[in-house]
Design brief:
The protein folds into two domains: about 110 residues, Aspartate Aminotransferase, domain 1 (Alpha-Beta Complex), CATH 3.90.1150; about 250 residues, 3-Layer(aba) Sandwich (Aspartate Aminotransferase, domain 2). Helix content is about 40%, strand content about 15%. It has twelve helices and 13 strands. Strand 6 and strand 7 form a beta hairpin. The protein is globular. Bound molecules: pyridoxal-5'-phosphate. The site of pyridoxal-5'-phosphate has 14 residues, from helix 3. The site of pyridoxal-5'-phosphate (PLP) has 14 residues, from helix 3.
């Protein structure tokens, strides 16, 4: 056995994406106790910065000490009680996982399906709400990473609210990459991830709960079945002015990394971060289209940070991806489910969304495809 030195790659898949050197260097700083006053004030700043990127005043805004999937599970574990009827919009892999969460926590999932590659349809959601007046929650994915489709979260939340449902929104890939206004759009519960458009390492899930979600949580008749994810307990650790009693040992150095990545977004400005993702997407799109490569998703609902393109006829999917990795240290993503072998998913997320990556990807792909 010897020390592990990973190869230096350019990460342009569906995540993890390139981590900024400032984040990597922050993580190498000395570990301190997670109840140390210096750590506690760093965490208070982190919570404020999360409110900034989520565009919310929600007090219950914090990082869950685990990856995006745990943020998803936190929302469903706390908000779904046995017997609750939940409308789950599915237009890709992550919507399917939401349904799985509902079922596992004893909820009754009503599925609204859209084609993979299309955004979630507000009309279909409204029809389902009319048919199910006893539903109490609507869940959907804002940015479906499995297909590259962006859904209109603002409209979907408005429809849910009209039928008195609270919303659970997956913003793992959207946060930092496209416009997302938690308070203005009246999103009730939202979770994200550190490893996509925040330029940070994998392993942390920022979440935010608004008043209506907190009210549903505090009115629960049954305790939350997950001890680790039970927010009523975690709040004693993370909450404003909380006693900071021991709940679990925070991943101290990973949180230094999150703090640095959020500081960088504050310096850039969240709106500028959205704009950068859009501009780099346009450059990549122009280059790919000039090579004759077509997109899976219609222009109006394309994610700038996740470009799903159709593999040209006669091209071997795995061979191209292997050559990009071995000859250019460039990782792009494969297709999932029905799209396996049919599409590539090219990420331009966070620190990976920059000019030199666009150029590298276009020239490497051009070279490998011509060969
Ligand atoms: C990546 C992703 C997740 C899961 O995040 P992990 O950090 O891999 O657990 C959930 N939802 C969406 C839309 C994602 O892209």
């Amino acid at each position: 056995m010897q020390s592990f030195y990973p190869p230096v790659r350019t990460l342009m898949g569906p995540g993890p994406s390139d981590v900024h050197p400032r984040v990597l260097s922050a993580m190498a700083r000395p570990t301190i106790g997670h109840l140390d006053p210096a750590f506690v004030s760093m965490m208070d700043e982190t919570k404020k910065a999360l409110q900034y990127v989520f565009k919310t005043e929600n007090e219950l805004t914090m990082p869950v000490s685990a990856p995006g999937s745990a943020g998803m599970e936190t929302c469903f574990a706390n908000l779904v009680e046995p017997g609750d009827k939940v409308i789950v919009c599915i237009n890709g892999v992550f919507g399917m996982r939401m349904k799985e969460n509902v079922t596992r926590f004893g909820g009754n999932a009503v599925v609204v399906e859209d084609n993979w590659g299309d955004p979630v349809s507000a009309t279909r959601l409204e029809d389902a709400l009319k048919d199910n007046p006893d539903a109490s929650i609507v869940a959907f994915v804002h940015a479906e990473t499995s297909t590259g489709a962006l859904s209109d979260a603002k409209t979907l939340c408005k429809v849910a609210r009209k039928y008195n449902c609270i919303t659970i929104v997956d913003a793992v890939t959207s946060l930092g990459g496209v416009e997302l206004l938690v308070d203005e759009w009246e999103i009730d519960a939202i979770y994200s991830g550190s490893q996509k458009c925040l330029s940070a390492m994998p392993g942390i899930s920022p979440i935010s709960f608004g008043e209506r979600a907190v009210a549903k949580l505090s009115k629960r008749k049954t305790p939350v079945t997950s001890w680790f994810l039970d927010l009523t307990l975690v709040m004693g650790y993370w909450g404003e002015g909380a006693k900071r009693s021991y709940h679990h040992t925070a991943p101290v150095n990973t949180l230094y990394g999150l703090h640095e990545s959020l500081l960088m977004i504050r310096e850039e400005g969240i709106e500028n971060s959205w704009l950068r993702h859009q501009q780099n997407h346009q450059k990549l799109r122009d280059g790919l289209e000039s090579m004759g490569i077509k997109f899976l998703v219609k222009a109006e609902s394309r994610l700038p940070q996740l470009n799903t393109v159709i593999i040209p006829d006669g091209i071997d999917d795995a061979d191209v991806r292997n050559r990009l990795l071995n000859e250019y240290n460039l990782e792009i993503g494969a297709g999932l489910g029905a799209y396996a072998g049919k599409v590539w998913r090219i990420g331009l997320m966070g620190y990976a969304s920059r000019n030199e990556n666009v150029t590298l990807c276009l020239s490497a792909l051009n070279y490998v495809l011509r060969k």
